[in-house]
Amino acid sequence: MSLHIICCVKQVPDPETPASQFRVDEAAKKVIPAPGIAPVPSQFDTIGVEAALRIRDALGDVKITVLSLGPESFRDAIKHCLAMGADEGVLINDPALAEADHWVTAQALAAAIQKLAPYDLVITGRQAVDWDMGVVGPTLAELLGIPCITIVKDVKVQDGKVVAERVLLDGFETVEAPLPAVVTVSNELGEPRYPQLRQIMMAARKQVTVWTAADLGLDPSQLKNRVNIEALYVPQTKVETEFIEGDTVEEKVDRLLQRLREAKLI
Amino acid sequence: MAIEVKVRSLRVRQLLAALSFFIAVALIPLVAALVVIAASQGMGEATRQVFFNIVKWARILVYAVTAVILLVLAYGPLSRLRLWLLGKKEERWDRPWERARFFLLYGVGQGRLPNDLYAGLMHLLIFWGWTFLFIGTVMLAFHDDFVEYLEGHVYLGYSLALDLAGVAATVGIIMALYRRYIWKHPKMRLGSLWDDVALLWLMLAILLTGFVIEGMRVGMTELQGATIDVHGGLATDPDWAPWSPVGFLIGKAALESGASQGFMEMLHKSLWWLHLAMATGWVAWVGYGKISHILLGSANIFFRKLSPTGAALAGTALAPIADFETAERFGAGYLRDFTWKQLMDVDVCVRCGRCEAHCPAYNTGKELTPMGFLQDIKRYLTEMGPRLLAARRKGEEVPDERPVAGDVVSFNTIWDCVTCGACEYQCPLFIEHIPKLMDMRRYLVMEQANMPETAQATLMQLEQRGHPWRGTQLTRTTWIEELAREGVQVPMFDGSQEYLYWVGCTGALQERNVKVTKAIVRLLLQAGVSFGVLGAEETCSGDPARRLGNEYLFQMQAQQNIETFKAKGVKKVIANCPHCFNTIRHEYPQLGGHFQVVHHTQLLAQLVAEGRLQPRTIEELWGFPVTYHDPCYLARHNDIVSEPRQVLQAMGLETVEMERHRKHTFCCGAGGGHMWVEESKGRRINHTRTAEAVASGARVVAVACPFCLQMFEEGAGSVPEAAKQGIQVLDVAELLERSVAYSRAATVR
């Protein structure tokens, strides 16, 4: 049985950008890209590709398509996933979708997924590591009208069903769902694999299919964001230092304990 | 303060070397000859009968046997050569004169053996003793069959020299037996294989039978003044006998103990045949087994890797993969992925254990042993090589061939290496360990993506962010902005300055190392050096990627830097990281980037010597013994050991040396990408080294490498003795900057 897995991948500002370099434009309510720091594929999404590759390692006959929505630069993220071992890449690139929120993103992705049909499994990261909303995966499932299993640490396909282990606060639960389904993966699944050089070289030669909203039969003017950003700012952290005085060590410790109690820290 | 800088030009050193060589090869034999002539007055007739007491046809037999033996001898190396040629092509014929010089120095001269005094002396005695005996035997054949010249002084001197050679070889063999059986030296950890044992006993037997044969001959002829069959009958003289001192003593003892003429004849005759059989057998053996290092080891020294940039070791500059598109395989996974020279290397290893005794990985309980992995490949080559040859002839595959990388040689062995070069520096046969391990890493990384998690994280980090320091909160310009706030303007390189100061990722992105970078900049400004930095345009030099097996990433990073350098008109580079220094110096030329690179300690030493920086003793450091830790990539890989010490001396600091220093230095544990790769097991290498620094009695460890600085700082906090001794770790530049600032303040006052 041949299986088709679609992995949704987003490119994000490097989460390791030094805090001093992270700036936002409060008026435009936008993040200003840090100079000289290249964006990276969102870590959870590459873990999603890893999950798909593991299914292929186990079953053999699996086609993996990487799907992304964003500007031309997102091609790098797709190439990275192709180098990891994915078969095909699709980029939805349309200036009209540049300001898409999770709702519009999910609409566009869902349209692309339907165009890529037949498909058996859609894998996304549990959340993108920039906005950390974690809603595109479940929204996709809703739009596609298929089951959704979120935040999983292991995913298998057995007897035409998907079997996944969901991460809980105090352990995990095993859940199964009929195919097709959406699964969102968590970091507990493990590190994404390192691309082999031959695959990097092959990925460099592979064509990435580019679709616009029109290609997907979408009318951008009908797609309205549902999330409104009221304000965007870097939180201010304030550090106050207080030295506890005292003549003896015991006295200092007593006063320290007293201050900590007053501050309700102990 | 007057600074004494030892200037010993190359010319002077060469002259000294030539002089001592002349003394060794010309003067000593000349004096010896004069002494012999003076002492052997009136013995002009002295000579010996060559086939004394032996049947006439023995002479023909000896020649016949020799011919057969030489054929048997030649078959050994030829059969090995066929196995080596399973490997890939590699050019090792360039610069033949330089190769000949190395061969004389390290083959004939055995230049590397004194690194281990006992074993070196032992080998020297056996080698020279045996060589003289061999030459003597050939001389005797020439005398007997062509021109009779071994007469009078010449004969007596010859006889004495050969007896002494025999004694030397015997002493050497006994030293070896003692080391193997009584001392049980740890270098013989792999145990005695049959040819180790048989070889020593056979050589001892050849020597002892030779002496007894000589003793019987002297006893039957010279000591009795008997007439021998030379020139139709020549009366011998007892005065000749002491010129064969060992034979003289044995012969005299035999006569005094009342041995009969018949017994002596019989003993002489039977031992003569035994000696002949053993000696010719030994010659045949030289084509095989351990003793074949006489031929193969010599050849290996001749074929050593020669560097176009003066790299000290084979592992200093790794060979590039020329074309990724057409490469059959990246790195070395199977036997045929190694080059012929790499396969020859594993074959010539004689398990002497010098590499292992100095390997930081092995000595801290890791899986890697340089000698061990060579022997593993050697065994597999011997086992699988002939089958591969047969299969190649038939155009078939060998289905059960095991990969070398990760199977014959274990995963941990390949990843334990810190590329410090101690093994290569020690190896008397110039075996090139590091390139083999690195080629196997390339295979594991680029073909299989099989590596320790920490290595993978580092490579991903290098690829995505262009530097290895994950999670740093600094940028490449943070330190420049900080200095600007202190009123120090760091010049940006624009092509008008003499030097580019290459800061390196660690110097810019690690808080502790930023202090060193700032110290260097202050010193350069103070001395009026014309320099600039690249700031945000710097990226990783490529060393970590290359040493972690991702040659592709290395070439991309190096190419990018070379292009930046060329675009900006960079000619000279100052590097404070020995790893960047090494890569720019020896590896960028492989990709067309030729730049003159200087390490900051070299430049600082020069500035101090020229009086452009005037250090003086810092009072608060009085009485604090300082020890200098040689970074592997300066000392062993680049021969830089004096300059950092000159800087410390100029400051008038009390310096002490650690047990392992200069080119014998012990790695801090961070080389070969191990700054970011977790050690597999055993004690941490940096803790071992920190303990050694503590044992030297030092309070300050002076370093010259950003990784060493990190490693020692960690060690100083984690090794209890270090914390107790209050070990401080400072870069040479930091010490100098304090000292110069102190000096300046004092002048103002």
Give a verbal description of the structure:
- The complex is a heterodimer of chains A (266) and B (749).
- In chain A, 27% of the residues lie in helices and 26% in strands.
- Chain A is an alpha/beta fold and 266 residues long.
- In chain A, the strands form 3 sheets. A 9-stranded mixed beta sheet of chain A has the order 11-10-9-12-8-1-6-7-13, sandwiched between helices. In chain A, strands 2-5 form a two-stranded antiparallel ribbon. Chain A has a two-stranded antiparallel ribbon with strand order 3-4.
- In chain A, a hairpin with a 2-residue loop joins strand 10 and strand 11.
- Chain B starts with 9 loop residues before the first helix and ends with a helix.
- Chain B has a 4-stranded parallel beta sheet. A 4-stranded parallel beta sheet of chain B has the order 8-7-9-10, sandwiched between helices. Chain B has a two-stranded antiparallel sheet with strand order 1-2.
- The N terminus of chain B is likely disordered.
- Chain B is mainly alpha-helical and 749 residues long.
- Chain B is 56% helix and 4% strand.
- At the A-B interface, helix 5 of A face helix 15 and helix 16 of B.
How many angstroms does the end-to-end distance of chain A come to? 60 Å
Provide a count of the helices of chain B.
29
Q: Write out the strand line-up for the largest beta sheet of chain A, numbering strands in chain order.
A: 11-10-9-12-8-1-6-7-13
Which blocks of ≥5 consecutive residues of chain A have pLDDT under 50? none
**Most extensive interface: pair and counts?**
A-B, 20 and 27 residues
**How is the biggest beta sheet of chain A arranged?**
9 strands, mixed
